[in-house]
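#random but structural
TW: two for the price of one
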Amino acid sequence: MQLTSKGPQTIQRAEGESVTLGCTYTPGPLDAGELDIEWSVVSPDTTQKDQLLMSYTGGTKYIHTNHALAKGLDFSAGDPSKGDASLSIALLSPAHRATYKCKVKKPPGVDMRKVSLVVMAKPSVPKCWMEGGELVGEPVSLHCKSAEGSTPLKYMWRREWGGAIPSAATQNSVTGELVISNHSQSFAGIYLCEVTNAVGAEHCRIHLRAHKPPNRAGMIVGIVVGSLLLVIILLIFTCLLLYKLCDRPRYEKEVSNEIREDVPAPESRPISRGTSRSTSQHPWLTGLC
């Protein structure tokens, strides 16, 4: 008896996919006994027995456990006695991660093969974002992060529009960061970040622009001119206010001196305090007016 499968000893698949663990065989010329096929899970503890999952003997298939690993198990060939004892597993889940052993026996011949199955989660769609401004001459960094997925995850930035990324930019394939220390127009473009692992890939995009910094000299001139205009407006308002205050006593005096001709002059009275109220209330106006 000789097993003839030449597939890899370790197989990586994504959750939800299906897989076939190869186990083809060729009986020897002296192997004349009853065919017996066994698939089991190898115990990581060498002191414990392996977990028998499925067998084929006497032309009948048997399932030996209610273990979660038994879900979706079957022989990939309709008749495993024809030289193909490969095992198929549908709808993989993390519970199927294990080392499997195929044992084919046809007395006096016997042979076995082990294969490890690694069930991984594909990367989720990553999030792209930017830190720092888009002003020319300033630093800016692009970030990419996938919230889910089996490690190791690898990140790679490339520019979809605008040509290859200039060599001055540095990127980290582990953290998903692309750093531009001195931004310029040559870095502008549409960037794509792709995150991958052994079983899948996803990506996101971001548009990086390059804006010229504001004219600082123009801003300073604008501030100075605005301040001067404000001072001029305040001076004009102050002058108008002083003019109104100075003109009011003059107007009151002219009105009081207008005596109608048909009205006799009033008798003279002592000067009251209220007569000089307008000037006494604002003595500082005397010097200004």
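TW: number two ↓
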Amino acid sequence: MTAIPLQVGIILLKSYQLLDAAGSIDSLTMLTPKYLQAIAAPSSYVSKAIPMNFHYISDSLEPVAPASGPLQLPTCTYATCPPLNLLFLPGVPLDTQFTQELVEFIQKCVQEVDIVMSVCTGSIVLAAAGVLNGKKASTNKSVQKFAVQNFSQVHWTEKGRWTVDGKFWTSSGITAGMDMMAAFLMSRYDKELVKWTHKIAEFVPRQQDDDPFTWILEENEQ
């Protein structure tokens, strides 16, 4: 029986942090049949591969400039995006303007998807859309004070690499997103396959409570 592909949607906003998305999305990609076959993975791992389709979403199909790196090409718009299983939001600058179209798209998606993920200030986007009200969430510790002051209806977690509340997985800064994705994949898919991709990537994920950056919160109070 052919497995139904996991439909993954990544929202592309102007000046988003490229590595917020690239690290985590690469971890997902490494579990796909195409990737595992391309690197001649052992057949025992290829047989456990997870088919996925990736949808890069924006307000138009015009290229989007991230904070660094090449222009990114959307594959669909808020209006044409197909049904998703996983919605992913990388971080953006705090002065980003969130259009009503974006807010409504996020609100609609949250009702339909199985998982909502954000890295760094991606959780600020979710908070601005009102979908984190009453929920626990993480954000980049450098903007923790901003988050608390502007989105007080969210229970912002101070310590920890990431936070899980129902379908919402939200992480601190860039590398915390990769740690979070590793934990998510370990919780959903074949653990030996996921660990093998970590070996290929020479990546050692931190655990949720292994947080060496809590000192930033104290620095912010000075």
